[in-house]
Specification:
26 helices, mainly alpha, single chain
């Protein structure tokens, strides 16, 4: 590890990015990071963490559009936190003239989507389909005053709520009612063998994957044994429970893995797949099912090589008690688990800040069980200052001190009211 003290210019950006990631940072600390002088923190602050409502509101009012573009990519901030924000109609007029801009990470409140739907232009409708706002656009279109928008919404029947579907089927406009009835029939009438197009036709794949299937189609797919058909059958939400159970015991691990990706599995099948001899099946289950047992999550983590396994530690069932026992493991990703143990010895965490692996060092520096004197030292160390600034053990007063040292204005950001 490098124990080099960095220059203030270097350290300030490290502190800013670390504070932006700190899960214990209060809104007034996060609000100071909205100043232009703290722009180094914006990618972390806006795109990589959950945010309290006052900070989201401030970003939506901020004069810098870059922050809203970053927020559009944030998987931790649900749409309801910004969907009711006011709109910039001048910017929306430009967007309506060039709807392909919809694909460029724009964050559009509900009012903005209504504005675009009001334009009643096919090219806008089509670009919305491929945007990050598609599902909200369908919901808003289903209740839109214009019949053309409501008809368009019927194309996305599975994405609509049951009340929205019922309203469309009783719509006062005959064209909307016809589109709704056709969509309803498509989703409720089982596909028969004679309805299936050629297997090389994309509509064949759509039918087997997404539409209700007759017993004859299901039987034929099972008897044929074609791996592609079995994978699609395993994916189809309407596949009967007894067939799902049969496919969960299929000899091909790839078929079992497709079943493991279903979120509607009952406890019996979750238990069966959790004990599957194939690691890929257990990994898929761990990634998709909230009921995956703790022992399966840990076993899968230990068996699965590579950094892609780390997100498993965010699963609510992932066992953290006792992970300190891995503090001297030869695999650095396994060694890093020790920093998650709420009962880990602070001296172990301190030792891990000197680990040869950078991910382990960062995790230890950000661990709230790190001794206070070591945390204070690491805030001045160029190698670990960013991780140390993300440590939730820092008090709000100390966070503000770091912002003061970084030259960030101490008054509330003008965007945070």
């Amino acid at each position: 590890m490098r124990n080099t003290l960095g220059s203030l210019a270097t350290m300030r950006d490290l502190w800013l990015r670390g504070l932006a990631a700190n899960p214990a940072a209060p809104p007034d600390v996060l609000g100071r990071l909205l100043y232009p002088s703290a722009a180094a923190a914006w990618p972390v602050l806006c795109a990589q963490r959950p945010l309290p409502q006052p900070v989201v509101d401030a970003i939506m009012r901020h004069p810098e559009g870059q922050l809203r573009s970053l927020l559009a990519d944030n998987p931790h901030v649900p749409a309801h936190q910004w969907a009711q924000a006011p709109i910039d109609e001048r910017g929306l007029k430009r967007l309506a003239r060039n709807p392909r801009e919809l694909l460029r990470g724009r964050l559009l409140p509900d009012a903005a989507l209504r504005y675009l739907l009001d334009r009643d232009r096919p090219e806008i409708f089509e670009e919305l389909v491929y945007s990050a706002h598609a599902r909200r656009a369908y919901t808003l279109a289903a209740a839109h005053p214009k019949a053309s928008a409501r008809t368009w919404a019927c194309r996305f029947w599975p994405a609509l709520s049951e009340p929205a579907r019922a309203a469309l089927r009783q719509d006062p406009d005959a064209g909307v009612r016809a589109a709704a009835q056709a969509a309803h029939s498509r989703q409720t009438t089982p596909v028969e063998p004679e309805d299936l197009p050629d297997r090389h036709d994309p509509d064949y794949h759509d039918a087997i994957m997404n539409r209700p299937l007759s017993a004859a189609v299901v039987t034929r797919a099972l008897a044929g044994g074609d791996p592609s058909d079995l994978h699609m059958l395993a994916y189809n939400p309407s596949t009967p429970a007894d067939v799902v159970a049969q496919l969960a015991r299929h000899p091909a691990a790839s078929v079992r893995a497709q079943i493991a990706a279903r979120t509607d599995l009952g406890p019996d099948l979750v238990g069966l797949l959790a004990a599957d001899p194939d690691g890929e099946v257990r990994l898929v289950l761990s990634r998709h099912h909230p009921g995956t047992p703790a022992e399966t999550l840990l076993r899968t983590f230990l068996d699965e090589p590579g950094p892609q396994r780390w997100p498993l530690t965010a699963h609510p069932n992932f066992p953290v008690a006792g992970l300190a026992r891995f503090g001297q493991h030869g695999d650095p990703q396994v060694r890093r688990l020790a920093t998650l143990d709420p009962g880990a010895d602070p001296l172990l965490i301190e030792r891990l800040t000197n680990d040869h692996d950078p991910d382990v060092r960062d995790a230890a520096a950000a661990c709230p069980r790190l001794p206070a004197d070591r945390l204070a030292y690491l805030l001045e160390d160029e190698d670990l200052a960013q991780a140390a600034a993300a440590n939730p053990a820092l008090s709000p007063d100390r966070m503000h001190e770091l912002l003061d040292q970084a030259g960030i204005p101490s008054t509330r950001s003008p965007a945070v009211r």
